[in-house]
Amino acid sequence: MQDYFNQLADKLMTHLTGQEFLTVSLTGERSDFVRLNNNKIRQAGNVSQVDVNVDLIEGKRHASATCDLSGNIQEDLSLLSDILKRLREQRALLPEDPYLNYATDVNNTSHMAPSSIPSTEEALEQIITAGTGLDLVGIWASGDMFRGFANSAGQRNWHSSTNFNFDFSVYHSSDKAIKLDYAGTQWGEEVLKSRMYTAREGLKVLERPAKTIKPGTYRAYLAPAAMRDIMDMMAWQGYGLKSHRTTQTPLIKMVKEGLTLHPAVTIKEDHIGGLAARFTTDGFLKPDQVTLIKAGAYQDCLVGARSAREYDQNVNAGSEHPNSLRLAAGNLLQSEILEQLHTGLYINNLWYCNFSDHNNCRITGMTRYACYWVENGKIESPINVMRFDESIYQMLGDNLIGLTKEREFLFDSSSYNQRSFASHFLPGALIEAFTLTL
User: Fold this and answer.
1) Roughly how many angstroms between the first and final C-alpha of the chain, as a whole number?
2) Are residues 331 and 427 in the same domain?
3) Angle, alpha carbons 41-45-51 (nearest 5°)
4) Please, which residues have CB within 8 angstroms of residue 133's CB and are 6 or more apart in sequence?
5) Whole-structure pTM over 0.90, yes or no?
6) pLDDT tens track for 251-273
7) What residue numbers bound the domain in which 90 lies?
């Protein structure tokens, strides 16, 4: 596909006239999808799709369009040639764009992430064997994902990743279930077996009568999957330069008033360690990392091309929302979490999170799936669903006891239009006082 894209781009550049400048951005995948129910394959299929966006620029005026590619170079070139003609006509009617910003320095790159995953058939056989006797429901997604960029200055960039994501739940009865996932670029059957063992042990707890927790503050452990929901709320307009300059970030008090989080909290956008391409759709190369919060203090923003032009900054991201978020590890051992928690809540998952007080970065949401009540370092019972309402400044600030040394690589399982390149690499968090409201 990389060779095909370069050939197509080279031929397309010959259709330019005058002082026109063209950028071409490609996205595509070859993915297998398998839906399981009751630990049996219920639906299986595969998707092979490629689309391309072209932006035809002259001066400060530009017009863009997106279309699907067939893989036949003559058909695709004919289609794109017609699109360029229409864009040329549209561009003449458009006003100048004051924030138009695209790379003009030529920086060529090619990155194919190393991977080692079995075929879909082999992986599903291992999953079904490991899940024998379980009411397992889930979706398997795997395959190649790729991005390409080309422009009329001669720049060519390519990025591809072969990976898998198994997002699944194991049900006890009714709404009682254990939710887990296993994702990555390197498959390990022993890791899968460990996940299934965790599910089986969790089901034993779900057999016990559920405990209803009274509203109040409790010592709590948030597993990495629950931390992902907290990180996603912080990222909702949290780190973008535009949201900072327009004071729409929920972290505004960190910027304006100097509020800090716990010194253990360091958050980065890790372009080099994630799944996303290391170049933007405008042709800018991303730095290896952008440190957003360092030792509890706000540091840098994510800067997209248009904000970079508007506020005279350097581009460091493809968008102003993180795609490869990393929270630094702490020094708590996962094997000792129950002992460290002693008495309180073990929260595996959250859902329906939203802001209850945006300016104070206060978040509300619900516990979900297998969340437990722990007494004297032992899991006693599952808990009924509860609502929480808590400020990030308390949760990851004064009330943070510590973060786990172990971290989990969590993929975004969404596949609307296409599989997502977004990922998180997160530890769990032990919190002194976590507020439940009802």
Assistant:
1) 53
2) yes
3) 150
4) 39
5) yes
6) 999 999 999 999 999 999 999 99
7) 2-206
